[in-house]
Design a protein that fits this description.
mainly alpha; about 80 residues
Length: about 80
């Protein structure tokens, strides 16, 4: 695993320490890695939505109902 040295602003450092004190995480490293994983998942969802919008704009109209589109979107977003 790559080792990094990073600095945090005082409010962010206090928040990180509070999460560890609350036993949500065992270390700052674990917490930062979890935050990065969450950001990566969120970015994947954003990328999927952006690609879907681009394809929709390029393809014109759909025959799918509003309910079908919503169901498919929820299924794909919730994995």
């Amino acid at each position: 695993m790559a080792r990094q040295s990073i600095s945090f602003t005082k409010p962010n450092d206090e928040w990180l320490k509070a999460q560890i004190e609350n036993q949500e995480y065992t270390s700052k490293s674990e917490l930062v890695n979890d935050l990065i994983r969450q950001a990566r998942k969120q970015q994947a969802k954003i990328d999927w939505i952006r690609a879907k919008i681009n394809r929709a704009e390029e393809s014109g109209f759909t025959e799918d109902s509003k309910e079908q589109i919503l169901r498919q979107s929820k299924t794909l977003l919730n994995g």
